[in-house]
Amino acid sequence: MGDAAPMVPATAKGEATRAHLLRTAAVVFAEQGYAATTMAQLIDASGLTKGAFYFYFRSKAELALAVLGEQKTRFLDRVVAALAGRERAVDELLAMVPVMVELIESDPAAWSVTRLARELAGEPQLTARVRASMAAWVALVAGVVRRAQAEGDLRAHVDADALAAVLVAAFDGLKSLTDVLDGPRASARFAERAGALVDLLDLALCGGRAGVGPAPPGEQTDQMAGRG
Fold first, then answer.
1. Rounded CA gap, 33 and 46, in Å?
2. Does this model's pTM top 0.85?
């Protein structure tokens, strides 16, 4: 079978079934990865008959691309909404990593976006569609960086697109490394390492605007005294 666009059911029930399949597949892909997942496992996890499943998605690649698109849109929307209301762009930039950590902790399947993109990128016929998904993340961060530069809170000489690519890669790399070193459920370790990434960004480019992570109780008084 080819990887043409999936059928989009016209009924509310059909849309609900398709959404269920996407959510279920996202969990399976997040846990097992694309290559290790079989269509039989996806069908079994969905609870649908084989015929009903294939009505919506005719191949694993077709389903994975749909999951990638849906998860990317949903995750991006949630990040943008969580960042809204901050006074300055630099505050959005520094809050972006903690927000994404919280979203991954509350919805582990969200991590399937990066894992799927990495695996599907190895399929030549899918590369362009996968690239668009990751480019959306880089564009979101680059836009925040440019606004922070325009507001005078971030060094103007820094290339916004390059910095955005580095930050996205660093975040994804930290999650992948933590999965290998400590297991995919080691959320506390991931949050700790992601916090170090924010501290580095803050000190290197923002002049310590957000402060350097939460200090142990015994050190908090000394830090405050030093700022006086």
1. 17
2. no
